[in-house]
Amino acid sequence: MSFSYIFPPAEQPSVAVRGSSARYAVSRIFCVGRNYAAHAREMGSDPDREPPFYFSKPASALVPSGSTVPYPPGTQNYHYEMELVIAIGAPVFKVTPEVARAAVWAYAAGLDMTRRDLQAEAKANGRPWDTAKGFEQSAVITELVRVSDTGVLQAGAITLAVNGVQKQRGDIADMIWSVPEIVANLSQFYHLQPGDLIYTGTPDGVGAVRPGDEISGHIDGLPALSLRIGEPD
Question: How far apart are CA 118 and CA 227, in angstroms?
C-alpha cells in the first residue's frame, strides 16, 4: 500500500558498513546503563550483577564519527561516554545467550553523549532520562564492521581522549554483562530485529567537554572514532 504525506517523511537513519556501498538502516537504539563496575561507582551506584537496565535514544540522534556537533542547549555539563555498539542482524525474541550470540551482525565504536546535569535532575526527581540522553546528535557512531570480519569481540581495549589527553581506559572484557547476555536479556522484553543498535555501556572516566574540544576514541579491532564540539546553536 502506498501513501501520500502531508509533510515529506524524515530521511531513514542509517550507518555506513565497512566494505559495502549499502548502509544499515536503523530503527531503534537501545543503551545499557552502568555496565562497567568502575563507572557505576563513579555514578554513585554499588555495582553487582543485578539484571541490566536500559534507556533509549531515537534513531534520528545518530551522527557519524568525524562530525562537528554544536554544544547542545539546556546544559552546562555535557559529557562523553565511549561505548562498544552492536548491530542486530537476525530476529530474536526470548532467546538464550547462545542463540543471541549468532544474532550479532556487526560492531562499531560509539559515543553516548549526555546532558549530565539534566540526568542528575531527572534521577533526583524520579523522572525519565529522555532530555538527558535522547537529544539531537547524541548517538555518535563509526562505520559498522561485520562480525565475519572481526570475529566475536570478547576482550580489547576501549579508550577515549579529549584534546589528546586520555580520560577513559578499560577493556570490553570488564563489562558486567557480556554482549550475548545483553542481547538475550533485552530479547525478553522486545522482539529484536535487524535495524536495532545496542550501546553497551561505558568505562569510568566520563567527564565534561566544551566548545572547541576534540574527542578521539578507540576500541581494539574497530574504526577510530572522532568528534569535535562546536559552538552552541
Answer: 22
